[in-house]
From TrEMBL:
Species for this entry: Bradyrhizobium symbiodeficiens
Pfam families cross-referenced by the UniProt entry: SBP_bac_11 (PF13531)
Source species, domain of life: Bacteria
Gene3D superfamilies, per the entry: Periplasmic binding protein-like II
Protein name: Substrate-binding domain-containing protein
Phylogenetic classification of the source organism: Bacteria, Pseudomonadati, Pseudomonadota, Alphaproteobacteria, Hyphomicrobiales
Length: 232
């Protein structure tokens, strides 16, 4: 079966999967590709990895358009995603209303599961939050860093630690079995990221890629986007 190929941030994986049947019914094509840290996905496109469309942060899409790797008029906002906390389904949710609350929650965790702190949106932000809270050195040995949020959350679900916690995009938390969304980061530490889709300049299936973007963003799928963790 022919496929439209995606390079996407992990934040959009659950939403894309949810639209697979509708896309196949409309176009006859399947969906294939990679989901991971946005910086790595952008670099794959720069390295000429074949892809029909990309779903990355708004800032990265703008850069890729400037580099003539994405068709500018195709760029469309999908929605915003919070960086949030996660716990295993069997553990109590944590209450984090202030930066002080977050500091104590992280200090009390014996394992902290996060995505790539250099290439992923949530991972980069979490590293900054640790510095902001003044506990980066204190908790460094407890950080469990994985290539992307989806992997970090699967590892959290299987963690043998007594008091583990995770932090990544809310969409990746919602899409992972065995863990629960435990709330957004508190004021002063929060991050709400706009994710944006665009057809690549080298797309083999540009019309079908544009059709998938239309499905991702149309009003009929607003509820699906919300269930996946996207906000308006």
């Amino acid at each position: 079966m022919k496929t439209v190929t995606i390079l996407s941030g992990g934040a959009a994986q659950g939403l894309v999967r949810g639209l697979g049947d509708a896309f196949k019914a409309q176009t006859g094509l399947g969906i294939d590709g990679e989901f991971g840290a946005v910086g790595i996905m952008a670099d794959k496109l720069r390295a000429r990895t074949l892809a029909d469309l990309v779903i990355l942060t708004q800032a990265l899409l703008a850069k890729l358009a400037e580099e003539k790797l994405v068709v500018p008029f195709s760029i469309t906002d999908v929605g915003r995603v919070e960086t949030a906390l996660a716990v295993r389904s069997r553990d109590p949710k944590v209450m984090v209303k202030t930066q002080g609350d977050l500091r104590e929650v992280l200090r009390s965790a014996d394992a902290i599961y996060v995505p790539d702190t250099k290439a992923s949106t949530a991972g980069q932000h979490f590293a900054k939050v640790l510095d902001q809270l003044g506990i980066a050195y204190e908790v460094a040995s407890r950080l469990k860093i994985f290539p992307n949020g989806a992997t970090a959350m699967r590892e959290l679900a299987a963690s043998p630690a007594a008091r583990p916690i995770g932090c990544t995009q809310a969409t990746e938390i919602i899409a992972t079995d065995g863990i629960e969304l435990s709330g957004a980061l508190p004021p002063g530490c929060e991050l709400l990221t706009m994710y944006t889709a665009g057809v690549t300049a080298s797309a083999a299936h540009p019309k079908e890629a544009a059709a998938l973007i239309a499905l991702l963003t149309d009003a009929d799928h607003k509820d699906l986007r919300q269930r996946a963790g996207f906000t308006g």
